[in-house]
User: Which sequence fits this backbone?
């Protein structure tokens, strides 16, 4: 008991470091996927006035509250440049299209107190209907599922039911499917190339094995970006591959090898191959070398030996390799970004786009949740179908 | 006698040298060997003698450099392993860990596309034969070493191969189990009339099991004979020393008469022994006597001193020292009356027909 406590104390710094440096920041970021505080920060009085409202005709108090809120927010935006109204408007636009421009426009009409209702209605007669008020109320927070629903191309309609987004606005399901498809293709290609390679390593003479393993691990000596950039050099229009093919007279004009799915898959397979080879080679190496011989002596040809003996016995390694490759492929960002065209970008690229370009951290977080969910689903499926006790890694 | 079931004709094999320049001796040099139908032949030899190479060549895991291997009159030397139809029992058993016992035993039938129903019946019969009828659904890992060995046997026999090869199959078992399995293999061999080739380095196992024993050393066949003949009439000093216990004394041939050589042991005395092979008077020889053939109270013989008497249960083992320091081992039955006490001087002797004089040779190549 004491030795266990001592052990826990010894690894406590590691656990704390893990918590502070890994779990907490990721948790805080993912939290943004459901946090809903943009509107509440700007329109607290309006939200208070709408509490208990039946949702039909807007109450008079709400107009006064909205005007006060907007005046204060404008003053604050002007003083600090915080852009609170713009962010609240962007958030409200997701609930009720048109709010992105309506809210700032309304704010400009209510710069002085008095006659709030008339001033607000002069911005738009829509304020007389319940719709914009309902949007404010439902975006009032503190939590929302709208971003997570949006990542699945779903939304809430006016009645609060979950419905699919209109056809022309659907994007995320397609991108998720594309991400899964690219990852699956890369995994299968790695398996196709990696299995024979693993077999070669596992059956090589003991003296050659360290060299072969070293060759497989060689790509790790350079960074992922360098390896990806190397493929750009190789595959570009005036690159080595095209030049060689042209010189050999196999082509009349250079092939478009870059900025497409082909380039993305070539580089992904190159980068991920070791993760497939190592577990399979480990599984094959742990096998009694007499087994294939025994099968042959019992009358089994090469194909039967492979299908009935080698493959089943290396399956734990194959499973581990596929899991490692597929999960890593799901999160690929740099490689598709540098080598792929617009239709080859994966979920991670859109997360980066929302975080860096649109500064919509909420949506970036929601997409991260989607990616995390996909990974969890894959791992769960693997556990259900294969079982984790059978996983064998190098 | 029928034509032999299996025949090796001048079969040679040399493995590639591990490093350039290193001379690699032939693993097998011109082996000639015949196995009759229904025979249990043992390949006996120290490691590196070529016995495993012989088995590999027969099973099809290696190809000979030259020579023919005739199975039922057909040369199979260059046939791939899976087309030879020879049953092999491996030292590690080589059971498929992901299959049940029944699937393991059924594997050769599956490979031969035997229909499912017939397959099940034959698997059941084979498991009955090795006395494991209830174990079909188990996995190999759930069985003891002896049980795994029996499953491996059943798997190698179930497709009725013309010959079953056993590669040191009992090496991993403890002594009691090994004796039980020896008996079991013997019974199976006799009951089914199976032809078996058994590879071992354990000479007592070879003596117990075999119809005939082929002694190999340095890639060459030294002698093929029934266990009794091999023990009593070894063809050379190596066989005499490798099969059973033997006292080996360097000597010089003084004279030859009627196949009996008089051998002088330097500074000790002169003793008779039956000459085996070409021996010339004046040349060196090796004198060999079995410990149980030694007499301690001979009227004339070699003076020796009893150094130690070890009680072994069924016999007493005596360590004797000759003048000059050479040691000789003698065995006497326990019941025998007066055994000399340690330190006593004895006169060591034997009947001329109980000792052998061989041409002197270096240790096994």
Assistant:
């Amino acid at each position: 008991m004491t030795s266990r406590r001592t052990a826990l104390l010894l690894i406590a710094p590691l656990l704390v470091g893990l918590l502070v440096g890994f779990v907490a920041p990721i948790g805080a970021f993912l939290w943004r996927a459901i946090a809903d505080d943009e509107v509440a920060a700007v329109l607290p009085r309006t939200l208070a006035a709408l509490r208990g409202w039946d949702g039909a005709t807007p109450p008079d108090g709400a107009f006064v509250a909205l005007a006060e809120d907007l005046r204060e927010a404008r003053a604050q935006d002007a003083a600090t440049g915080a852009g609170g109204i713009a962010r609240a408007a962007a958030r409200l636009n997701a609930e009720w299209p048109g709010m992105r421009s309506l809210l700032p426009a309304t704010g400009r009409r209510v710069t002085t107190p008095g006659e709030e209702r008339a001033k607000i209605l002069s911005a738009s007669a829509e304020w007389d209907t319940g719709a914009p008020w309902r949007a404010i109320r439902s975006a009032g927070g503190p939590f929302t599922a709208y971003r997570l629903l949006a990542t699945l191309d779903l939304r809430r309609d006016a009645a609060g039911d979950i419905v699919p987004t209109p056809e022309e606005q659907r994007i995320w399901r397609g991108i998720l499917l594309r991400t899964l498809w690219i990852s699956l293709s890369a995994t299968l290609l790695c398996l196709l190339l990696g299995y024979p390679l693993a077999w070669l390593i596992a059956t090589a003479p003991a003296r050659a094995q360290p060299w072969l393993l070293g060759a497989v691990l060689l790509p790790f000596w350079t960074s992922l970006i360098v390896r990806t950039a190397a493929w750009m050099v190789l595959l570009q229009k005036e690159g080595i591959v095209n030049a060689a093919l042209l010189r050999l007279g196999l082509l009349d004009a250079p092939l478009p090898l870059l900025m497409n799915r082909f380039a993305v898959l070539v580089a992904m397979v190159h980068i991920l191959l070791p993760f497939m080879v190592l577990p399979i080679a480990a599984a094959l190496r742990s096998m009694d070398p007499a087994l294939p011989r025994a099968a042959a002596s019992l009358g089994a040809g090469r194909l039967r030996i492979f299908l009935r003996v080698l493959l089943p016995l290396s399956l734990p390694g194959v499973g581990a390799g596929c899991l490692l490759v597929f999960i890593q492929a799901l999160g690929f960002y740099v490689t598709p970004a540098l080598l792929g065209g617009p239709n080859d970008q994966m979920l991670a690229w859109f997360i980066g786009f929302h975080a860096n370009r649109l500064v919509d951290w909420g949506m970036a977080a929601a997409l991260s949740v989607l990616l995390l969910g996909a990974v969890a689903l894959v791992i769960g499926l693997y556990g259900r179908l294969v079982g984790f006790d059978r996983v064998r890694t190098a | 006698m029928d034509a032999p079931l299996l025949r090796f004709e001048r079969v040679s094999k040399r493995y590639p040298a591990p490093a350039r320049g290193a001379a690699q001796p032939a693993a097998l040099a011109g082996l000639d060997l015949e196995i009759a139908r229904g025979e249990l032949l043992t390949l006996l030899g120290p490691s590196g003698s070529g016995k495993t190479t012989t088995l590999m060549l027969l099973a099809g895991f290696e190809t000979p450099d030259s020579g023919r291997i005739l199975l039922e009159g057909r040369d199979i030397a260059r046939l791939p392993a899976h087309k030879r139809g020879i049953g092999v029992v491996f030292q590690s058993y080589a059971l498929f860990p992901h299959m049940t016992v029944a699937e393991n035993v059924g594997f050769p039938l599956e490979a031969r596309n035997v229909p499912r129903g017939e397959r099940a019946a034959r698997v059941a019969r084979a498991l009955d034969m090795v006395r494991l009828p209830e174990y079909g659904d188990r996995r190999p890992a759930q069985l003891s070493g002896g049980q795994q060995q029996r499953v491996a046997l059943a798997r190698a026999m179930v497709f009725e191969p013309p010959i079953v090869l056993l590669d040191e199959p009992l090496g991993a078992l403890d002594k009691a189990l090994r004796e039980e399995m020896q008996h079991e293999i013997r019974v199976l061999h006799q009951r089914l009339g199976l032809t078996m080739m058994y590879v071992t380095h354990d000479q007592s196992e070879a003596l117990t099991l075999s119809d005939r024993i082929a002694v190999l050393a340095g890639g060459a066949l030294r002698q093929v004979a029934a266990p009794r003949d091999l023990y009593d009439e070894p063809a050379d000093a190596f066989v005499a020393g490798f099969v059973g216990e033997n006292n080996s004394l360097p000597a010089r041939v003084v004279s030859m008469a009627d196949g009996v050589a008089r051998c002088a042991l330097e500074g000790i005395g002169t003793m008779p022994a039956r000459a085996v092979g070409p021996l010339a008077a004046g040349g060196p020889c090796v004198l060999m006597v079995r410990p149980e053939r030694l007499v301690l109270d001979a009227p004339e013989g070699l003076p020796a001193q009893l150094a130690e008497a070890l009680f072994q249960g069924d016999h007493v083992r005596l360590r004797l020292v000759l003048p000059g320091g050479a040691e000789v081992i003698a065995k006497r039955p326990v019941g025998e009356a007066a055994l000399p006490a340690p330190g006593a001087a004895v006169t060591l002797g034997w009947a001329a027909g109980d000792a052998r004089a061989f041409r002197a040779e270096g240790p096994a190549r």
Q: What stands out?
A: Chain A is about 70% helix and 0% strand. The first helix of chain A runs from residue 2 to 31. Residues 42 and 72 of chain A are 8 Å apart (CA to CA).
